[in-house]
Amino acid sequence: MTNPSIGQTGGADITLGLDTFGDVTNDAEGKPLSHGQTIRHLVEEGVLADRVGLDHFGIGEHHTDTMPLSAADVVLAAIAARTSHIRLGSAVTVISSDDPVRVFQRYATLDAVSGGRAEVILGRGSSTESFPIFGYDLSDYEELFEEKLSLFAELLQEKPVTWSGNTRASLDGLSIYPHSESGSIPTWVGVGGSPESVIRTARYGFSLMLAIIGARRPASRRSHSCSSRRWRSSDSLSGPSASMRPGMSPPPTSRRWRSSCPPSKPPFEACPGSAVSAPRPVRASCVMSARAARCTSDPPKPWPARSR
């Protein structure tokens, strides 16, 4: 669903996709579905997203009774086995409470299973339920993210890694396998809008996910302006990638476009169009909310296939 006319003129390459936290929904009698049913439905939703021609499908990590998606990469692998085109990734992976080496290995494996369609969005964790589960102290919140992000940046080079820090064991010239199909897994950092987070993302050369739902325009303007200045100041970077979620006020620019989610049919909830523009490429992510749709214990019925 990339718009070739925009891409060919040197503007933004636009892709459209869906992110979800895998909320538990209710059956026809109003009873919550089991975690197993919820996860199986999510696989069907990812397959459906590919069938209707969306560009990406992301699953956010959570560890709660109402959002039981604690192993998004496993679910994404199941979707990968039944799809051909759609890119698959996290939205987000809480890198602070995970091992960057294992995150890299899992998503490199997903990249192999999907034929090079994997990507990962790294985040600090606005929901912190994973920290006590894995034995991390919230007082180390900043250090955990900074160190693990730096290690992940090294891992993406797919060369022997030498790294040391305070939050995990050191690596001394070790190679990490498997390697990705393309030589580097596309990586984003989910940012809540603070200038410090934006600058950190640019410093490591990652793409930027402005993950603010319902943000005020001034906040998004500052984040976009900050990231653009930082990338322009770096000779090693060709330019930032930016992603915005509907409901977020995008920065003003001369090139504008309007995006809309799929029709309001289960399991997707329609969301209003947003005039958006940002440095190339741009990705608009519609947040799925199955709670707003009429859900049953049956898997979602597929929409008619549409040519890409």
Structure, described:
It is a single chain. With 308 residues, this protein is α/β, with parallel strands linked by helices. The protein has a single domain (4-292), classed as TIM Barrel (Alpha-Beta Barrel), CATH 3.20.20.30. The chain has eight helices and 13 strands. The N and C termini lie close together (7 Å).
Short description:
With 308 residues, this protein is α/β, with parallel strands linked by helices. It has helices spanning 4-8, 35-51, 72-80, 100-114, 130-133, 141-155, 195-204, 217-232; strands spanning 14-20, 56-59, 87-90, 93-94, 118-123, 161-163, 171-174, 187-191, 207-210, 242-244, 257-259, 274-276, 282-287. Mean pLDDT is 75; it is low at 1-10, 215-220, 234-240, 246-281 and 287-308.
CATH topology: TIM Barrel
Kindly, what is the distance between the CA atoms of the first and last residues, rounded to a whole number of angstroms? 7 Å
Whole-number count of domains: 1
Number of helices: 8
What general form does the structure show? globular
The total count of strands amounts to: 13
**CATH architecture descriptor text:** Alpha-Beta Barrel
Radius of gyration: 19 Å
> Beta-sheet strand percentage?
15-25%
Taken in chain order, the helices and strands follow as HEHEHEEHEHHEEEHEHEEEE
Content-based structural category = alpha/beta
